[in-house]
Design a protein that fits this description.
The protein is α/β, with parallel strands linked by helices and 194 residues long. The chain has one domain: 3-Layer(aba) Sandwich (Rossmann fold), CATH 3.40.50. Helices cover 56% and strands 12% of the residues. β1, α3 and β2 form a beta-alpha-beta unit. The chain is globular.
Length: 194
């Protein structure tokens, strides 16, 4: 049985969809998407790999993007979305250190590190960012919510979603990253023009 939505529900849904539309249409992010495309391709050419990491919903984004970039775009990627790795490192070193410890185990010189944190406040992601900086690994950060609490200064390239709803921030991050993947694929297959 289908029910007709009330006017308030329709207005809410319209406003919700508008949050996504404006997040994707932000003009400032377009040059960054092309810059990230270049950085990923340069990493591949140098023989490095791309490491994606995050917490919570962001770890799922990291996992999906690592697979798509590898399979679809031919970019060598890894992510740390493996239960026994996460639980082992979190148990032995603390939940606030597991991504840093994973980077210590798997990062090679010349790798590109992409860290995703909706709020940008996760001590786990902040420690990983500081470790990447100490190793002079190129670092890309994706964050959202308050600009003042975001660790954007740590990254060589930062994507910030000016939103305060987890799902909107996470989906925006996901679309931005997959847009980069599609750019790499289209450039390789049919010479997309910028």
């Amino acid at each position: 049985m289908q029910t007709d939505p009330d006017l308030a529900g329709v207005q809410w849904l319209t406003a919700y969809v508008e949050l996504y539309r404006t997040a994707f249409a932000d003009g400032w992010v377009q040059p960054q998407i092309f810059e990230l495309q270049d950085r990923i391709v340069e990493t591949q050419v140098r023989g490095g790999k791309v490491t994606f990491a995050g917490n919570g919903g962001s770890v799922a984004i990291a996992s999906h993007c690592a697979v798509d970039f590898s399979k679809t775009a031919g970019i060598r990627c890894i992510n740390f979305n493996v239960e026994n790795l996460i639980t082992c490192l979190a148990k032995d070193y603390g939940c606030e250190c597991w991504v840093e410890k994973a980077l210590r185990l798997y990062a090679d010189d010349g790798d590109l590190v992409i860290l995703i944190s909706s709020r940008g406040r996760s001590s786990n992601i902040l420690r990983a960012a500081e470790y990447a900086r100490s190793r002079q690994l190129p670092l890309v950060l994706l964050t959202g919510f308050d600009a003042d609490t975001s660790p954007r200064a740590l990254g060589d390239l930062c994507f910030w979603s000016d939103r305060s709803a987890y799902n909107v921030v996470e989906i925006t991050h996901h679309v931005w990253l997959l847009a980069v993947c599609e750019l790499i694929v289209s450039t390789a297959e049919y010479a997309a023009v910028r």
